[in-house]
Amino acid sequence: MPGRAPRPLTPDVASRPRFADPDRLDDGGVVLVAEDVAGPVPARALVRVALDGSGVSELFRGPRFLAAPRTSPDGRRLAWTSWEHPDMPWQRTLLWTADVGPDHRLRAVRVLAGAGRRESLLHPGWTADGRLLVVSDRSGWWNLHRVEPAGGDEAHLVPVLPEAAEQGFPPWTFGTTSWAALDDGRVALLHGSATYGLDVVDPRTGEVDRLGLPFTAYSPVLAAAGTTVAAVAASATRGPTVVTVDVGTGPRPAGRPPAVQLVQAGGRTPDPAVLPVPQPVTVPSAGGRVVHAHRYAPTNAALDVAHHDGTAPHVLFVHGGPTSQSQAAVSPEVAYFTSRGIGVVDVQYGGSTGYGRAYREALDGAWGVVDVEDCVAVARWLVADGLAPADRIGIRGGSAGGFTVLACLTGTDAFSAGTSYYGVADLRALAADTHDFESRYLDSLVGPLPQAEDVYAARAPLNHVDGLSCPVLLLQGADDLVVPRAQAERFAEALRRKGLPHALVVFPGEQHGFRRAENVAAALEAELSFYGQVWGFDPPGVPRLDLVRGPGDLP
User: Fold this and answer.
1) Is 186 helix (H, G, I), strand (E, B) or coil?
2) What is the separation of C-alpha 261 from the centre of its chain, rounded to a whole number of angstroms?
3) Residue 9: its pLDDT value, please?
4) Would the N or C end of the chain have less CB density within 10 A of its end CB?
5) pLDDT at 306 (0 to 100)
6) Cα-based distances in Å from 220 to 157, 170, 178
C-alpha cells in the first residue's frame, strides 16, 4: 500500500520453502512454485500465497520439478509443466491443467500433453480470449501450439506458426518465455535460429504481422499490455536494451516497422566503428554433421598481430550449458578481442539450442566427443580458408564450455592456447557436487552412474593432462560451488608437473561466473596478455600475466 512499509507474505525463516515464478491466481492471492530443501530429497509444490498475509496453502504436489504455473484470464483454470529425473525440461516435460474452485482449491487435475510421447513442452500460458498455448518440439522444432480438446484428458496440439525455426528457449531459470499475450487475442512471439526476430501472430488463424525490427537477438523474456510489447533486444551494434514496441491493432503498411522506444540500455556500447558484424557460417564436421557458428572478423588492423600472409589470430568462443546458444549480437568480450586484431568464432557445437531437437540431441551420450569434434572442425576450417594461421588459434569457454576447452586441449592438437573460465575438469566430481536441478543432467550427456563410471573417467580432461602440448590459462572463482576451485588447482598442478606454461588466477569473492566489474576486466586483461605471450606480440595497456613455466616456478 502507498505510504506503508512492505511486509513479507511468506514465513521469513531460512529453513522454510523458497518461492518463485508467481502468477495471479485470484483477486486475493498468487500462485507460485515452492521448494523445500530441508529434507533429504528436495520437494516442490504449487502453492497459493494470500496477499493479505494470512498464509500459504498447498495446491498441488507430486512431480520432482514444477514450473510455469499460469492462470487463465477468468481465473477458472491453471496450467503448468513438470518433469522428473533424469530428464531436463528441454528433453521431456508434461503439460498439466486443473480447474480452480471458488475455494481456491484445484479440481480435475490432469495431464494434457506429454504423457504418451517424449517431447519438450515449454512456456504454457493463455491468450486474452482464454486459449491455452504451449511451445512443443514434437515437430523437431520448438513451435507454439494451441491446446484443444481431443476427448479424454489428452489434448490435441495444433501448431500456430509451423516453421523450421525455434519459438522457445531452454528454461534454465524460472520466468523464461518466448511469447506474450496481447489484449486482442494475438500474441507477440520471439522466433528464429541463427538470428531471432519479434513478430505478432494470431493463434486463431496463424496470420503473422512481421514487424521488421532492427534487432537480431533477444533475451528469453517478454511482456505485453494492451498493444505494447516489452522485450530485451540486441543487435550487432547495440547491446542488450529494454525496448517497448506499440504493435497496433490492425494491418500495417508494408515496409513500415512500428516505433520502438529504448527504455533502458544495459551499458555503454562501444564505438560502432570497432564493433564486428557476426557472419553466420556452417562448417562440415565429423560423421557427416555440420556445425553452426558466428565469425567476427578483426576490426582493428592497425595493431601488429596479423600474420605476414594476411591471416589473423583467432579465438573460438565455446558457450556454457551445454544446452544453450550464443546469439548473434554485440558482445563486449568479442569486441575486446576483435578491436585488438584477433578474430573470434562463436561455435554453436552439436548440443546447442537454436537449430532444432535433433541438433540439440547430437550431444546425448557424446559430451566431450561431438563438441570437441565440432570445435576442431571450425579450427581446421579457419586454416583451410586462409583466415587464421594454424599456430595462432586459441579456444576459450566457461563452465561446460570450459570442459570442452580442456577436452579439446588434452585430446587434440588443433589449438595453440586455451583459456578455461571455471571449467569442469573432473566429470565424476561434477556429478557428485552439483545441485538437484542438474544432478542427473550428465545421465544424458555422458551416461548413468554407476554403469558409466569408466566413461566419466575417460572423458575427464584431468585424467589426460599428458595429452597437453600448449599453454593453458585457468580463471576461477574462489567460492565456486558448482565447479569448486579444487578442480582448477588439480589441473594447474598437473600442468606444472608437465612443465607447460600456464597460470591459475583465483578471484576472491567470486562464484560460478564473475560478477564484479573489476574482476571481469582483470580476467580479460589476463587472457589478452596470455595470448600475447603465447603468440609473440605485446598487447599495449594491459598488465603482464605471470606464467608458471616449469616445476620449479612458484604458482
Assistant:
1) coil
2) 26
3) 84
4) N
5) 57
6) 23, 9, 6
Reported as type and span, the H/E element at residue 46 is: strand 43-50
Give the position of cell 566489474: 517
State the Cα angle at 386 between 383 and 388, rounded to 5°: 55
Count of residues for the chain?
A: 555
At 204-242, the pLDDT tens digits run 999 999 999 999 999 999 999 999 999 999 998 888 999
**Burial of residue 189 (number of CB atoms within 10 Å: 0-12, 13-18, 19+):** buried
d(CA 67, CA 44): 9
CB 153 within 8 A of CB 108: no
Could you give phi then psi for residue 295, rounded to 5 degrees?
Answer: -100, 135
Cα separation, 202 vs 377, in Å, equals 42
Query: Residue 18 and residue 41: Cα distance in Å, rounded?
Result: 15
What is d(CA 296, CA 344) in angstroms, rounded to the nearest whole number? 5
Instruction: Look up residue 538 and give its three cell numbers.
Output: 605485446
* Alpha-carbon span 43 to 381, nearest angstrom: 48
Q: How far apart are the first and last CA of the chain?
A: 57
d(CA 141, CA 358): 9
Query: Distance between CA atoms of 408 and 375, rounded to whole angstroms?
Result: 8
Instruction: Supply the pLDDT for residue 553.
Output: 63
- Sort strands 228-234 and 241-246 into parallel, antiparallel or unpaired: antiparallel
pLDDT at residue 1, as a whole number: 61
List the one residue out of 181, 203, 200, 182 whose CA is nearest residue 191: 200
Q: What is the Rg, in whole angstroms, of the alpha carbon atoms belonging to the chain?
A: 25
Query: What whole-number distance in Å separates Cα of residue 350 and Cα of residue 410?
Result: 20
- Please choose, from the candidates 226, 232, 387, 423, the residue with its C-alpha nearest in 3D space to the C-alpha of residue 315: 387
> Which positions of the chain have pLDDT values less than 70?
1, 12-15, 250-251, 255, 265-269, 301-309, 550-555
Are 190 and 197 within 8 A, CB to CB?
A: yes
Angle between helices 400-411 and 370-384 (to 10 degrees): 70
Give the Cα separation of 33 and 43 in Å (integer): 10
Spatial CA neighbour of 459 closest among 372, 344, 340, 338: 372
The 8 Å CB, 24+ separation contacts for 213-219 are: 213/245, 213/257, 213/258, 213/260, 214/257, 214/260, 215/243, 215/329, 216/278, 216/327, 216/328, 216/329, 217/327, 217/328, 217/329, 218/190, 218/327
Mind giving me the DSSP string for 59-113? EEE-SSEEEEEEE-TTSSEEEEEEE-TT--TTT--EEEEEEEPTTS-EEEEEEEE
Helix/strand/coil for 220: strand
Name residue 222's amino acid: L
Looking at residue 168, its pLDDT comes to 97
**Whole-number pLDDT of residue 63:** 97
pTM of the model: 0.92
